[in-house]
Amino acid sequence: MKRLYYLDNLKVCLTVLVIMHHAGQAYGDGGGWPYTPSNPAEFMPWIWHFFSTNAAFFMGLYFFISGFFVPRSFDKQGAKLFIQKKLLRLGVPLLIIGTIISIMTGKIEIAHMWFVESLLVFCLVYALIRRWVSPVDSACNSKPTIIGLLIVALVMGIGSYFIRQVSPQDHWIWPFGIIPLPMEPAHYLQYVMMFILGILAYRFQWLDKMSNSTGFTTLLIGVALAVGNYLRDGGPWNDFVWQWFGIYESLMCVFISFGLIWLFREYISGTSRLTLSSSVTTRPFVQAQWCSLLRQFWQWCAAQSYGAYVFHLLLMIVLQNVVDGIWMGAFGKFLFIGVVTTILSFLLTWIVKMIPGVKKVL
Description:
It contains eleven helices and no strands.
């Protein structure tokens, strides 16, 4: 199977979006955050739209991409090696970062590493199922359609709607007592379904089969739903969306996710030559060099994206405290923290991976 560079590039952008999302939490109503600005003027009341839209799809899309690569890894390595590598690549960072965060907070806490832990659990469950169940037949001619995606989104949405009647959004639980496996029931059905969809997408080659018309229409629907979410500001529309937000959010998740996958597949693959106008350059050699550098940059970022996710929260908390007394305005502080933390996270990962053996983990 050829490497799908556009999924690597999409994962890089998702990592940056996660960092920017966390950068804004201290300066808006984004839930509990370990740092609070000393200046109460550093607050952005509008940023909840950003949080709400991000939460609708970005972690679900993370699980989809992760699930997409699981069958290939299992088929190639076998159950034993697959489990060993997942325990190494997911379990070791979880243990190290979870220990550091727990020491800092004085309680058992894994913070953003809940995603890594949940992914590890999903992979182990997949390996367990494969002991008795053969992989599905990849000869199926199914492919993504608007109706099919709508059905998936509605199943996800209806399930999420009923879950939220007993466990609202932002309500986190530890279902296994002392075992640190925090989960947010309101979103967990989405994560499980997106992980499974990723597995099926690999088996049935859905990403290659998705037509341009389906991908473009899906992206338009996803963007329209996101704009509708940003337009919520009281009134009947806000009341309607809020009442049915489990369904509305699931529609955003599915359509934005598949729309972005199509967009990156067609336009941000990082492998095709860029077509520059004659006003920019008339020299093919310069164009080829530029394209090569751009590909290398994307590939470098992709290689560091997992480590950047792992390290970013600790770096961000330190940076926020360091610049606490410097006035930049709420929006300026948000951008500064987000951009600088992103750069430092990717660079730190690159440096740490120079240590012998670390590349096997990060």
